[in-house]
Amino acid sequence: MDAKLQRRVQRYGWDLASNDYDPLWQEQLAPARNWMLELAAIEPGQQVLDLACGTGLATLAAGELVGASGSVLGTDLSGQMVEVARQRAAEQRASNVTFKRMDAETLNLPDASFDVVLCSLGLMYVPDAKRAVREWRRVLKPGGRVAIAVWGKRANCGWSPVFPIVEAEVDSDVCPLFFSLGEPNALLNLCEDAGFRDVRQRRVASALKYDDAETACDAAFIGGPVALAWSRFDDEVRAEARERYKHAIEPWRCVQGYRIPGEFVIVAGTNPTAHGA
Q1: Which one is the CATH code of 3-159+171-210+261-270: 3.40.50.150, 3.10.310.10, 3.60.21.10, 3.90.550.10?
Q2: Does residue 204 or residue 231 have the better pLDDT?
């Protein structure tokens, strides 16, 4: 897929998902978010950048860690996601947190301006991950830290059939190479190649919990990367797609509803000082 088209698909898809994201995904993605924040080792008074921030869940958590003497900037390609994040920050009176709409690959930010850069489950969507991570290093101060979370291997994510189900109805891949960074050492190597040092990796197994099949389908089709394609399907195609997805996740049905396996990879590294670069 052309990079410009891929960005447009992601931007408008996440615009459509902005109101459904939190109720469908906030709890499911908490393990990745929490591990990322732990590896980031954020300290009071620091300046933090949260990329692909979505509705601001990690951004606001980072705001609590840096305290009144620090600040956090959350950016996202989706204007609607940014608006939801701003509303949440206002409700929580988080005066040290701000949000801007911005492409994670091309940051309109000065060099060496942040102590920590975060990205929770956003790097899989950018057209050029190598370019993005190098750009993130550019805005980090010497000695600053990056912490990134992505989905793990496709085989370890029981919800992954959503992609071929949707792609069967459209002309191109809706999210090319989505799971590539979840392969062994792929994200770690990407960060090292970008110049980060002392890179640590953690692979975390999790489970996406849903009370019923309809909620699991909503999360898969409405809450994220395939939302734009889904919005253009007619009722018949939607019904067929939901039935196919229900069949795919049937092995994960239990007394409590559905416990669909998932996996996250979290990596953190340090931007070398000028002397050690």
Answers
A1: 3.40.50.150
A2: 204
